[in-house]
Structures are given as structure tokens and as C-alpha cells.
Amino acid sequence: MIWMSWRQFRTPALAGAAALAVFGGYLVILGVRIRHGYGDSLELCHRQGGGCAAAMTDFQNRFASQLYFLDAVLLMLPALIGLFWGAPLVTRELEAGTHRLVWNQSITRGRWLTVKLLVVGAAGMVLAGVASLLLTWAASPFDQVADNRFSTLLFGTRNIVPIAYAAFAFVLGTVSGILVRRTVPAMALTFLVFVVIQVLVPNVVRPHLRTPVTAAQPMTAEVVRNLGFLGQHATVAGLRIPGAWVVSGSQLRAADGEPVDQHSYDNCINAGFDGVADCIAKLDLHVDIAYQPVDRYWSFQWLESALFLGLAALLAAVGRWRINGRRT
Amino acid sequence: MPPDDLLPILRADGLTKRYGKRTALTDCDLDIPRGRVVGLVGPNGAGKSTLLQLCCGLIAPSAGTLAVLGAPPAASAAHLARVGFVAQDTPVYSALSVADHLRMGERLNPGWDAGLANRRIAAVGLNPGQRAGRLSGGQRAQLALTIAAAKRPDLLIFDEPAAALDPLARSGFLRNLTEFVAELGASAVLSSHLLGDIERVCDYLIVLCGSRVQLAGDVRDLLATHHRVVAPGPELDRLSAEAEVVWADGTGAVVRAAARQLPAQWTVRPVELEELVLSYLTRAARP
């Protein structure tokens, strides 16, 4: 059955390999260029002195749009695998009637499905894995400067999670096909479910994969200057801890833990653009935050991979059960 | 449990298959002994395909039980190996070559007889390198037949195998089918709405109409117990209770009865298979 799965999958596999070769070649070239660009920027700022912030911003601007595009490709890749390799895996047989040929060979339907899932699924995981690892390598100097590896876009397009996404999307496509029985509706269903999952997991599930660390972040003038937002009612947004992922934050609080006195806060807000930070710093405020420290990055990668692989296994079991009890 | 050889090829009790509200097969009872070539006849939509797909486990019954060679259909890989199935319009993988199909058969069937397969492919003149999508209907049917037969099953099931073929291809296909059955020592079930095909190759008959089994039995027994009689309508009432008028048209009738049960003064002649089947189909189709 391994031979048969491979024989049927040969053409899509070659197409996938060709696409990967082009994509990979582009990533290698880009990776080399990014390294040169990074080296140049470092050299520039060391020569000029006075901190590297401007040079690094230049460096980031140079490659940001290309990397955004590549991140988007890698976000889409698992969905494409699910749509074009997963969904037609069984429906193509049903539509051509060949299931009536192959299901009467001396192999049970469950085994037939399992081998097909493993062979084509493994190819999908290799494809996503190679693409992800090449992008991770190519973008690593950029990511290091951005120092934002927990962001939704970066977390989902680097290292090992794309492999698990690919496995999940592929099984999702196949099982949709088994349930819907027609290729195009199965593709639509696959895409819909995959997008919903990819929105839900980073926003609802991922923050709770491990219990966040809580801390009181003092509102020094430096921190206030880097905030994204200061609200009328002493709320803040855009609070960043380098590398770490701030999951939630409280209002601005005074040293005794009570919310800041609204009157003194308003005075600071009205102190004018330049004065705000120093004014707030004098109030000795802090924000109670919950965050995932930077050293948890790999445990999050593994946990999320396990989550998606578990979902894939669960779906595969549903598919096996359904295909055995198929009522045509 | 009786020895395996004595288990019936098909045994159905109250077998029923519904698709939503439509009933494709109703309360079907069958008990077909080994070594037969069974013909399944009936008009289109009678439930022939449904019965055969139930037999090879492609679909599951809605009610009743079915045992094929003593076990539920497609129960295990070992059981699948014992039943060969050629589906209606003989599906093959259009992108794969003839040789690929044989390789598939070899990989997926432990009992694969490569010699038999290659011999047959050569005998019917199929080019192993040709893609199956380019084969004619007759060639495709021959390929499907070869794949089903080369796994050396104990039972071969054919669903309207020759329906789409021209007369010459059909004749060749049926000849091959008969040869296979003889060579494998297998039993076979084949459905057709062409009575001539059935008459040519089958020794057991099932007449299916309106989702019900109308008649089932050994062809010789059926012919021996049915008679074409010429007798005016009222005369038919004189038949004893054991005899049954299957069909009558005012001047004559097909009756099921032992010869001695018929009045001596009637003109009685042997019934032909086609006549017999048509009389049951006509009766079933009557509102």
C-alpha cells in the first residue's frame, strides 16, 4: 500500500518538490543578503558611534516587506497542503469510482486510509518543515533585531510549529473529504475550519498553554515613552518586555496597589507631549502584568506542535471510523 | 460450523437497504450453494447493484444479515482476499498504466497470481505501458476482470460488467469470465439486464424486481418446475393448490408446478428461460 500511495502521489509530490526548490533557493539567496545587510548595518553604526537604533531600523525597513510576504506564504502553506493534497485524497477516488476498485483489494479500508495519510502526510510535513526551517534561518538576524518571537506572525511561521500545522491541515482536508465526499466543498470546508482554528489558537488557546508569570512593571519614564497607548482611564497598551509575551495587564496602579488617582493622572496627561513620561514616572505607578517569559519559547513551540498533532490524530481516528461505516 | 467448502457463497436473511426514504432492497432472503455461476437479472433500478455492493462490503445493510463465504462482507483483509469484485463501468486509475495496475494488484493482494495476470493481459492484447485512461471500454473491462481474478478469489462478483460493451467485446469478455471461473474453481455472481448473457454463462438464477427477490434457484430446477401451458383462463382455476400461475394472458400461462399436477388434456411445453424470467418480471411490475 505504501507503493500504491506513493505511485498515486507521485505527480503532486514532484510539483511540491519543484515549488519547494524555487522557494528554498529564494530563501537561501535572501538569507545571504540579510546577513550581508546586517553586517553592513553593524559596521555602519560602529563606525558612526552613538548607538545602533537608527541603523537597525534601516536594516529592518530594508527587509520587512519581503519577510512579511514570506511569512504570509508560510502561513498559507499548511492550508494549501490541506486543500490540494488532503481534500482530494479520498474524494478523487469517490468521484472517479476507483474506491470500488481499491477497496476490494486484500486490504481493509482503515489500513488503506492510514497508509495514505502517513505517506502523503509525511510528505506534507517535510515540505512545511523544510520551508519553515529555511525561513527561520534566512530571517534569523532580522528576527533577532525585532526581538518579537512570540508575536502571532513570527511564532506561527518559524521553527517547528508549521510542521504540526501542515499535518493538521492535511488530515483536516482528508477527513473533510470523507465527510463531504466531493472535492470542491471539502476544500471550502477545510479552508474555513483551518482559518478559524488559526485565529482561535493564537488568541484564545496559546496564552494559556502555560500559566503566565505575573510581575509588577514599574512605569518609569523610559517605559512610558515606549508605550503604544495611554488611555483616559489610566489604561495602557503596547507594554513590552523584550522578547517576552505580555498576555494581560492591569490599569495603572499606585504603590499601594490601588488604581491611580484619576486627578493626578489627568494632570499628567495634560502636561503636554514631552512632559507626560516624566510626570507619570514621578507618580511611582506600576502595572500588574501577566507574561510568558522569553525562555519559554521552545516549550511553547513543542506544546503547540503537540496540540496540533493531537488534533490531527483525533481527526484521523474520526476519518477511519467514518470510512469503515460508509453508507454510500 | 460446517466445513468452509460447504458454506454458502451468499446467505441473506431479511436483507434490506434503504437510501433515505427510498428502499433499494427489501427483505431479501437468499441461500446460494458453492460452485455456482449466479445470474442476477432484473430491470434497471431493481436493486441489482445494491445487492452486489452489499455482497462485497462497499455498502452496509440497513437491516437484516448477510454472510458471504460464511462471514460478513469485507470483514477483514483475509476475507477481502477471497472475494473479487468488478464494479459497474469497471473503474480504473486513468493516470496509471496497465502495468501499474498489475503492480497494485501484486502489492495489495497476498495471493496474487502474477503469471495468470500477465498471461491474461497478453492474451487479450493489452499493452502494459498504456495508460488505463486511454483504454477502450472493452479493454478496461478486461483489465478490471484480470485484477479481480488474479488475486485468486473464491468468489467473483461482477456488476453489469458487459453493459457498456459492444456485442463483440461483450462476447469476448463473457468468454474470458467463464474461463476464469473454470480456471480458479471459483463461484461467481454476475448481474445483467441482458438475459442472453445470463443464459449463456449462469447455472443459478436470481430475478430481482421492485427491490424484491422474485425468484431464485438452480436454472435446471427452475426450468423443470415451470411450464408453458395453453389453456383458457377459466381452466387455470382447476389447478391444484400447490401449483401457481405466474403469468397468464387469456390463452396461455406460465405455471409453477410439478408436471404431474397439470391436467393431462392441456398442451404443455417446456418453458424457456427468457419466458420464465419475463413472466416473473411482468407479474412483479403489475400494480
Summarize the structure in words.
The complex is a heterodimer of chains A (328) and B (287). In chain A, helix 1 packs antiparallel against helix 2 (53-86), helix 5 (109-146) packs antiparallel against helix 12 (297-324) and helix 7 packs parallel to helix 12 (297-324). With 328 residues, chain A is mostly helical. Chain A has helices spanning 2-48, 53-86, 88-96, 99-102, 109-146, 152-155, 161-180, 183-205, 221-225, 262-269, 275-282, 297-324, and strands at residues 213-218, 229-230, 236-237, 245-253, 286-292. Helix content of chain A is 70%, strand content 8%. The longest helix of chain A has 47 residues, at 2-48. Chain A folds into 2 domains: 2-209 and 297-325, no CATH class; 213-296, no CATH class. Chain A has 12 helices and 5 strands. Chain B is of the alpha/beta class. Helix content of chain B is 34%, strand content 27%. In chain B, strands 5-6-7-3-8-9 form a 6-stranded mixed β-sheet, sandwiched between helices. Chain B has a 4-stranded antiparallel β-sheet with strand order 11-12-10-13. In chain B, helix 4 runs antiparallel to helix 5 (137-150) and helix 5 packs parallel to helix 6 (167-184). Chain B is elongated. Chain B starts with 9 loop residues before the first strand and ends with a helix. Chains A and B meet through helix 1 and helix 4 of A and helix 2, strand 5, helix 3 and helix 5 of B.
